[in-house]
Amino acid sequence: MNISHYLVDDIGHYAIEYRIHAVRRMFQRDIHEDDVEYVLKHGEIIEKYDDDFFPLPSLLLNGLSLSGRPLHVVAGVNNFEKIIVIITAYQPDPLRWSDNFAERVQ
Fold first, then answer.
1. What 8-state DSSP symbol labels residue 40?
2. What digits encode the pLDDT tens for the residues 27-62?
3. Environment class of residue 78 by beta-carbon count within 10 Å: exposed (0-12), middle (13-18) or buried (19+)?
4. Rg of the chain taking only CA atoms, in angstroms
5. 47: which strand partners?
6. What is the model's pTM?
7. Do residues 40 and 15 lie in contact, with contact meaning Cβ atoms separated by under 8 Å?
8. What is the spatial distance between Cα 59 and Cα 52, in angstroms, rounded to a whole number?
9. Among 8, 34, 50, 72, which residue's CB has the most CB atoms within a 10 Å radius?
């Protein structure tokens, strides 16, 4: 399932905002906004956190960057204001995730 199942409108009608934590981590991890937005549009939801981005849900998306690098993106969804908030992004640890990075192994 992709993020469009949780949106009330096309993703193109949503603003994308980045938390300061996300921007710092993306810089440290050499992850670019284009890659995050690509995962938002093409990645698969692998976990949903109903209370993480209180009072709104957040989602863990699994996908590939534009260069094919595995990425996880945690994003909060605000359907009232049509905003997707990027909470963090990281390259999943192969020791903690399945081969396709879609399931936790520990």
1. H
2. 999 999 999 999 999 999 999 988 766 677 899 999
3. middle
4. 13
5. 60
6. 0.92
7. no
8. 9
9. 72
CA distances from 82 to 9, 38, 87 (A): 8, 18, 16
Domain-wise residue ranges, the chain = 18-90
* 11, 79 contact by CB (below 8 A): no
Token output for 94: 């192969």
Report the C-alpha gap between 8 and 16 in whole angstroms: 15
What is d(CA 90, CA 49) in angstroms, rounded to the nearest whole number? Answer: 17
Q: Which of 95, 91, 74, 101 is nearest to 28 (CA)?
A: 91
Residue 75, H or E segment: strand 70-78
8 A C-beta contact, residue 73 and residue 6: no
Classify the C-alpha dihedral 43-44-47-53 as positive or negative. positive
